[in-house]
Amino acid sequence: MLQPAAGRWLLLLTAALTPNAVSCGRTSAPSPPSAPSPTPAERVVYANDFNGPLGTTYPEWSVGRYSWTGNAAGTIAAGSGTEAIRTIESASGTQRFLGELGGPIILQAPPYDARHFVRVDESIDLSLTGLPGHGSLTLALDLYILKSWDGNNPIYGPDRWSVAIDGERLLATTFSNNFKTGIDVSLQDYPSADSLPQTGAVAVNSLGYGFWFGDATYRLSWTLPHSASAATVTFSSSLNEGKSEQARSTRDESWGLDNVRVTIR
Ligand SMILES: [Ca+2]
Ligand SMILES: [Ca+2]
Q1: Within a domain: residue 123?
Q2: Residue 34 falls within a domain, yes or no?
Q3: What is the distance in A from the centroid of ligand 2 to the CA of 160?
Q4: What is the widest separation between alpha-carbon atoms in the chain?
Q5: Number of structural domains in the chain
Q6: Tens of pLDDT, residue by residue, the chain (265 residues)
Q7: Where are the beta strands (DSSP E) in 1-41?
Q8: Domain containing 207: what range?
Q9: Is residue 17 a part of any domain in this protein?
């Protein structure tokens, strides 16, 4: 099994063997014509744990493209921009990852209410090229949902996240770290509609964001038919509020990617 070096990404460009050729190379006698085809070996074509130097950008990752709406109060007009997304350290100082995603702070000062909130959308692409011949592709990653995501809350949210490969949607859902109850209830649609906040997370509050609603880690993977020699994975969010949190003046709600791994068969 190929293992990527820590902190580096690995892109296999050279091997042109078909899966069948790989299989036949392991046997001394030709298979009979009626023999079933063995499962092609899994090949790692991309792996990145983002544990390299802080501030690293990667050519296979696009800039973040963001836009925001105007607000009902009329104090902010709609706009758009781009930002380089780099490796950062978690608030706990224990993990490095690609972030913070979700778009910059647009609403710079109070009042923080529904009339002043703006919706901020951001997308980033992972582009892979030169993929050897294959019939299926698996994408696996850790998604970090950071700070005050509000799930389906109609005032502070909905706060949405999605991923697509070559335009084919793999997941579109909402996440919540907001355990308020009563009229402020903020359920999430992952893994199913109106789940409690942080349902399905493999870890919570492991990244040090307890100063502002905490954090949740989701270990996600998808396998789909895929044979093209290139793939574009698009990660997107649509977050309502656009303000800073009030403890450290960082983004009120954001996300990060870690341990991104693409394999093919
Ligand atoms: Ca990492
Ligand atoms: Ca929100």
Answers
A1: yes
A2: no
A3: 9
A4: 76
A5: 1
A6: 334 444 344 433 333 333 333 333 333 445 555 666 667 899 999 999 999 999 999 999 999 999 999 999 999 999 999 999 999 999 999 999 999 999 999 999 999 999 999 999 999 999 999 999 999 999 999 999 999 999 999 999 999 999 999 999 999 999 999 998 787 889 999 999 999 999 999 999 999 999 999 999 999 999 999 999 999 999 999 999 999 998 899 999 999 999 999 999 9
A7: none
A8: 40-264
A9: no
